[in-house]
Design goal:
With 241 residues, this protein is of the alpha/beta class. 34% of the residues lie in helices and 22% in strands. The strands form 3 sheets. Strands 1-2-4-3 form a 4-stranded mixed beta sheet. A 4-stranded mixed beta sheet has the order 5-6-8-7, with no helix packed on it.
Length: 241
């Protein structure tokens, strides 16, 4: 324990949970009033948020004291399972049946609560992923155009990401990246993330002014969207790993 807390500050701290070594990311947030911990949606890292005045050593000790809780969170992660004929796939918050018939068109089509798709079964998963990514690009581009207009900022080019640790990002140059997996989430959840990144085009921080603007831009409840991601977000990684 002591050796771990006396780590080289240039190194990223890590913790062993159930035989798996996970990096520990500590973030200081101006609005944080207490220490909070969670597991990344894909289980790739432990995330600790602490007040600006918090000490890193205390945060690491906090994580070490809650190894059992982290182990339970890891065990509860959905198992990755590629989509297959007769199975299901989430799309914009709906769970659709995968209706495969080799004689049908290879490009997926939506009909009566199902995804109709043809072509060889061995390439089914790869083609469904490409279709979801294309849908994500089109739908999220519309979302971004909407929120950039509301924020009175020029439309930025959208890039899709398959990041394992975040749903969206806005670079210092205004580059917007959104995780394509959000096309599987309900519309209000996806749009909340796009609105969040669009708000960063005005306030590149998480200050009260940023949150006030986000509340103006987003038509729904940010709290509900965040709660959905916290509760269900890990499932979005199960279909394609």
């Amino acid at each position: 324990m002591l050796d771990w807390l006396r780590r080289d500050p240039r190194e990223t701290p890590s913790i062993e949970i159930a035989g798996q070594v996970l990096p520990v990311v500590v973030r200081r947030l101006a609005q944080a009033r207490r220490m909070t911990m969670r597991l990344a949606p894909d289980g790739s890292e432990v995330r600790l948020s602490i007040p600006r005045w918090g000490r890193t050593a205390e945060a690491l000790a906090f994580a070490a004291a809650r190894k059992d809780w982290l182990a339970g969170q890891l065990a509860a992660l959905p198992r990755a399972q590629a989509p297959e004929a007769g199975g299901t796939l989430a799309y914009r918050g709906e769970v659709l049946r995968i209706a495969h018939d080799p004689a049908r068109r290879r490009k997926p089509e939506l009909a009566d609560g199902a995804i109709l798709i043809g072509g060889p079964a061995e390439s089914l998963s790869a083609r469904l992923k490409r279709w979801l990514e294309a849908e994500a690009r089109a739908v999220m581009a519309e979302d971004l155009a909407h929120y950039c207009a509301l924020a009175d900022r020029p439309l930025r080019k959208l890039a899709l990401t398959s990041a394992q640790r975040r749903w969206g990002s806005c670079g210092p140059d205004g580059a917007i990246r959104i995780n394509w997996r959000l096309i599987m989430a309900p519309d209000f959840v996806r749009r909340s993330v796009v609105a969040h990144e669009a708000a960063h085009l005005v306030h590149f921080d998480h200050s009260p002014r940023f949150h006030a603007l986000l509340d103006e831009l987003f038509e729904g409840s940010i709290d509900e969207a965040n709660a959905w991601l916290k509760r269900e977000g890990r499932k979005l990684y199960a279909a394609f790993g």
